[in-house]
Each structure stands twice: as C-alpha cells, then as structure tokens.
Amino acid sequence: MACFTLRPSDRSEFDSLLGELATQFPTAHVEAAHNDNWASYRVDISCDAPWEGDLTAWLQSKHADCPRT
Q1: 12-50 as b/e, with b when 16 or more CB fall inside 10 Å?
Q2: For the whole prediction, is pTM greater than 0.85?
Q3: What angle do CA 20, 59, 18 make, to 5 degrees?
C-alpha cells in the first residue's frame, strides 16, 4: 500500500491534482481538505497493490515539487 499526504501550494494546483487523480487512479482512496482563506490545502492519497508503484511513479513525474508530509 502506498500512502501520501500532499500539500499543494494553491487552489489551482489542488484542483488539478484532484482531477488528475480521479482520471489516472480511480480506485485510489482520496481525502482532500482546503481553506481558501488560510491558503491551506491537503490531499491524502492511498492506493493498494498493484497500483502503488504506478501512483508513486506518477507523483514523482507529475507532482514532484508538491510538498509532502
């Protein structure tokens, strides 16, 4: 299982990330929260085998600069 918490820098990146995840990894479990007033964005993603390697590689290639916790 792969689990990540991403911290997009702004609402545009947040929305883009959610849309891309829904398209690329429809079976991934995604929880997202945002507060536009505080410019706080969080996306929690988990994915079971066999997709965990693909998710990890996709995040590295498409969103490598997005902070993770």
Answers
A1: ebbeebbeebeeebeebeeebebeeeeeebebebebeee
A2: yes
A3: 25
Task: Please check whether residue 5 is in contact with residue 42, taking contact to mean a CB–CB distance below 8 angstroms.
Answer: yes
CA distance 26 to 28: 6
- The string of pLDDT tens digits covering residues 16-46 is 999 999 999 999 999 999 999 999 999 999 9
Judge whether 44 and 4 are in contact, CB under 8 Å.
yes
| 2 neighbors 55 (Cβ within 8 angstroms) | yes
